[in-house]
Amino acid sequence: MLPIRRDIRFDLPADRIKDWHEQGPQVTHFFNALSLLFPSGERFFMDSVRHYRKRITDPQLTAEVQGFIGQEAMHSREHVQYNELMEAAGLPARTLDRRLAWFLDLLKKWLPASFNLSVTLALEHYTAILADLLLRDPSRLGDSLPGYTHVWTWHALEETEHKAVSFDVWNQVVEPGLGRYLLRCGSMLVTTVVFWLVVFDFHVRLLIADRHAPHFLRGFWRVIVFLYGPRGVFPSIARQWLDYFRPGFHPWQHDNRTHLERIDGLVAAIEAGTSR
Ligand SMILES: [Fe+2]
Ligand SMILES: [Fe+2]
């Protein structure tokens, strides 16, 4: 699977940044909180993989790494634009991004490159299983505003396309054995706690900043069902999350490449509809 860098621009109506999701502002802000993680998070992924670039001997994997970095760079660029709409609408986007960047820079400075790569692997697994959920269940985005639906679907498809690249780099550059397995799984446990704490914190801060929105309290039930209900985000990804702890796990054991058949149609729709 060779990831392809697609240089695409999106038409995101600025006046709907706080309420673009079909299910209202609370669910919108869950997605917006995730969007705030991408610019700094994806820079961290690219740096973690880049650190090992020279040690990759397989030309196919070298090409995949190039595609991975190209895709993440495009995601970062588009989510910076997206997040600036939040800032312009009075939400604390830049402050939250700066905090995350500070935290990730500490990791880069003080922790071993192998640990940072294992965190990248864990977060790439998260993006892959969340992307799979978004792509296999159309009700996740439902009838939300097209520009925003496009950017999330594009990102989910490309995360699927490159989901195994950092994992394959890991397998090639880190010595196999029990130590590698324990580092990979231990990092997943630590990353899980930190990742969801940060998402929760960002989500709550966006909600507080937008507390004067109409029907603000009524919408809370929807976001609770969306995240924690029987068909919610957390129950829906639990099994795929657990699979990561199998000793012989590889991301393509979840073979969901059929989603990728949608890419060309999506790109055509975006290019036909976008005004930029
Ligand atoms: Fe990405
Ligand atoms: Fe990614």
Automatic annotation (TrEMBL):
This is Metal-dependent hydrolase. Keywords: Hydrolase. The keyword Hydrolase applies. InterPro entries: UCP07580. One of its GO terms (molecular function) is hydrolase activity. The keyword Hydrolase applies.
